[in-house]
């Protein structure tokens, strides 16, 4: 298991499966017969497990019985969380009465004896039609509650612990830290280098972030996602990004002198194998910037970021535009050189690029 933040771990099906004894094992059955545990009354829960795949651990009662019975929960906050999500079939939320396996390979130490864990089974597939966003609000509330407890632990797993599980954790951290997708993804990669977030899920998270971490109407959200998904997938790798470094030049609106972008934001291109310099073309292509407007449209004008100016700088098109040298840039955020002035960089406050449209 890999620790993402304190109390929150991600791992594979095998790692989570080894945490507790299978419900059909002889030791589990014999120990249960000798115990006085109240199997229908839940209390003292400080561990939650989210299975984000079709592989259900062998210690799960729902796996063996195929029934999701309703439990009486003594803690008021946990009861509210449980009851408000119990009927949601996408989450398959329930409690499992488990017996720690004391596996020698595990670095997790549970107390001896039976314990209840709150368990959600999300049968998610890495497919474009997967409504993964249905788990965002629930997972945030669940993780926040469990991690607020003393010794609270959350384990999230999928088959390998690389894609679906890391995607769900990423959605939680984005909302918790109020940070965009790419920034959280970088953190995830720093603590779990094998993180491999689904392209479909990442786009749902980006839309979730842009909606202020709210989904007022699920049908509207999902229809917009499906309508724009193909365009997003075509364009996500076409921005030719470079590692950030201090710029040499900044570019400002010729009309009002507002700083717009730097040479770090310029997308270099080639024609017939020869790389063109910006000075050789009548226009330059840049990365999408936070000040750009109407980028949800397929094409449009690029106007100065200064609302009191609004001078036309160029055009954008998600389907691409041609440079004066003949190069076709897709997608294209094209600025006419005659509309901007170039100055040497001197710690200017360069406007930020839109990280949500620049996913590597």
UniProtKB/TrEMBL annotation:
A GO molecular function term, named singly, is: protein tyrosine/serine/threonine phosphatase activity
Q: What residue stretches are annotated with the Tyrosine specific protein phosphatases domain?
A: 130-193
Keywords noted in UniProt: Hydrolase, Protein phosphatase
Q: Which Pfam families match?
A: DSPc
* Domain of life, per lineage: Eukaryota
Q: What enzyme class is recorded for this protein?
A: hydrolase
Query: Any idea of its EC number?
Result: 3.1.3.48
Regarding protein family, the annotation reads: Belongs to the protein-tyrosine phosphatase family. Non-receptor class dual specificity subfamily.
| Name of the protein this chain belongs to | protein-tyrosine-phosphatase
The organism of origin for this protein: Theileria annulata
């Amino acid at each position: 298991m890999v620790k993402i933040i304190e109390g929150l771990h991600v791992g594979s099906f095998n790692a989570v499966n080894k945490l507790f004894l299978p419900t059909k094992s002889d030791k589990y059955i014999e120990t249960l017969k000798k115990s006085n545990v109240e199997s229908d009354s839940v209390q003292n829960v400080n561990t939650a497990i989210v299975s984000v795949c079709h592989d259900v651990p062998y210690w799960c009662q729902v796996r063996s019985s195929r029934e999701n019975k309703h439990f009486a929960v003594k803690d008021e906050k946990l009861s509210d969380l449980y009851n408000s999500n119990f009927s949601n079939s996408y989450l398959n939320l329930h409690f499992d009465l488990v017996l720690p396996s004391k596996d020698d390979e595990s670095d997790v130490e549970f107390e001896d004896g039976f314990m209840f864990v709150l368990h959600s089974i999300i049968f998610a597939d890495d497919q474009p039609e997967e409504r993964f966003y249905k788990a965002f609000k629930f997972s945030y509330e669940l993780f926040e509650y469990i991690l607020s407890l003393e010794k609270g632990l959350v384990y999230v797993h999928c088959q390998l612990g690389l894609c679906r599980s890391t995607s769900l954790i990423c959605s939680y951290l984005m909302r918790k830290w109020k940070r965009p997708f790419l920034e959280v993804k970088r953190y995830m990669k720093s603590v779990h280098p094998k993180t491999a977030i689904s392209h479909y899920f990442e786009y749902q998270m980006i839309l979730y972030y842009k909606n202020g971490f709210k989904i007022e109407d699920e049908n509207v959200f999902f229809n917009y996602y499906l309508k724009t998904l193909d365009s997003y997938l075509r364009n996500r790798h076409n921005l030719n990004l470079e590692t950030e470094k201090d710029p040499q030049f900044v570019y400002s609106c010729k009309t009002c002198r507002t700083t717009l972008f730097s040479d770090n934001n310029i997308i270099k291109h080639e024609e017939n194998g020869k790389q063109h310099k910006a000075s050789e073309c009548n226009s330059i292509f840049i990365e999408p910037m936070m000040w750009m407007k109407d980028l949800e449209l397929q094409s449009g004008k690029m106007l100065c970021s200064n609302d009191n100016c609004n001078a036309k700088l160029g055009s954008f098109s998600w389907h691409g535009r041609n440079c004066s040298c003949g190069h076709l840039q897709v997608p294209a955020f094209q600025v006419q050189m005659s509309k901007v002035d170039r100055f040497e960089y001197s710690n200017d406050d360069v406007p930020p690029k839109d990280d949500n449209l620049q996913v590597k």
